[in-house]
Fold this sequence. Notes:
two-stranded parallel ribbon; Nucleotidyltransferase, domain 5; 2 domains; 164 residues; single chain; 5 strands; alpha+beta
Amino acid sequence: MALITAMRTWQTIPKALVFDNDSPFKGKLLSTFCNHLGIRLIYASVRHPQTNGKLERAFRDDMNEFYRQQQDWVLESLRRALPEYVHYRNYVRGHRALGGKPSIITTAPFLALEFRKAELDLRFFTTLTSLGTPHDITLQELRIESFFPADEANEEVVRHLARD
């Protein structure tokens, strides 16, 4: 249930999940659910803590930077405080492995893409659109990705290619 709640809250489906080799994570229900959504299940190797190193490091950092900073460990107050911490951890806090940069860097409200083929060099930005309050579950899952030329020069090249 926590996985579904997290996916709804962050409006994303993870590509992979790392679990311990404990039996609660080996059930058919979890396996079927993740398989249906295309989520790869990764299990930590038994007696090999390096496999789980990133997860253990994240637990340690979260314990020091979030949980121990909370006055009370009451589920509802932790749940309310967590999104702000996750934003801090991903968008503000620097990481040594990334040269002191945050793990997610956003410089604009869009994703820039660059395509090269032979002498042709094109730059686009992409946006994702989803329906805010769909009345149909199928529409709720619909995402429309649109590509736009990143500058006037690229727009001219794209218009020229479209005419040909």
